[in-house]
Predict the 3D structure of the following.
Amino acid sequence: MKSSRLLSILLLLQTRGRMTAAELAQELEVSVRTVYRDAESLAAAGVPLYGDAGHSGGYQLLAGYRTRLTGLSSGEAEALFLTGMPGPAAELGLGRALSAAQLKLRAALPPELRAQADRMRLRFHLDAPGWYAEHEETPYLAQVADAVWRGRVVEVRYRRWKEPREVDRRLAPYGLVLKAGRWYLVAGAVEGVEGAEGAERAEGAKQAGAVEHSRPRTYRVDQILRVAETEEVAELPEGFDLAEHWRRAQADFHERLHPEEAVVRLSARAASLLTGPQARALAATGEPDPELEGWTRAVLPIESESQAEAQFLALAAEAEVLSPQRLRARIKATLAAMTARYG
């Protein structure tokens, strides 16, 4: 365990440069005192590792020092072949590079690990998109990815859900995310793009080598209708972490998705059909209904009254909305209209 941790410290410092003891401890999920002891062990073993005290200090390897990865565990070798993602890599124009990298990795493995990696590749296949998801063309994905990689502002024509449907934007790209088979661009909108004043600011930003942009927003890459890369530098905001930003954005999306609540009673069958946040709310707030034996009363999050009306009508006689009264009245009016229509 300690030898694996020492190797991890070496690789972290080799790939990231200077790191503080606190940063290493957080990365390795150990105490700072353990990092101190590990650093002493590495130094005693002849590794050219030195540390600086102070606010901007930290551990660092001597310039030019490199360690060779002398071995992988069987689990690590198997996991590497599960990270292939040939479809997304091909979409980004990296299909050949990925195949070549896997071939080199396989050739470098000892025979026993090579056999385990081959077995993993033969028996497991990752296919992220859902069954009913249609493939959306993303003709500008490669250009957007290039702008992300090079850190360049792009000018795009974007199709959104509200009016006006098509808008022009200048975006500072921060990163690309693949979610359920769909590509998303996380970017900041560059301000001041219209009129003489905007052009003057853009020219000044170009001369300065970077541009100012707004907080990160999410754009679907398949909704980009046109893209042109500029020579303006788009630097990442200080401390920006793509994975952490995406996690917070998802949490915020789910909170905004169900801003209201409804008190309902459900049969056992209706309760079994709930999924996601509603299933979790049922588990947290559900209690035996005092009036109907075998039914459950719970407070469920809902997206809107119209969405909730459609959902609970689909459950027919297996569910009853108790509040809010406006939602209950909507369902009652719809049922009355259906009764009249069907005689």
Notes: Residues 118 and 207 are 52 Å apart (CA to CA). The chain has a mean pLDDT of 82. The two ends are 75 Å apart (CA to CA). The longest strand covers residues 166-179.
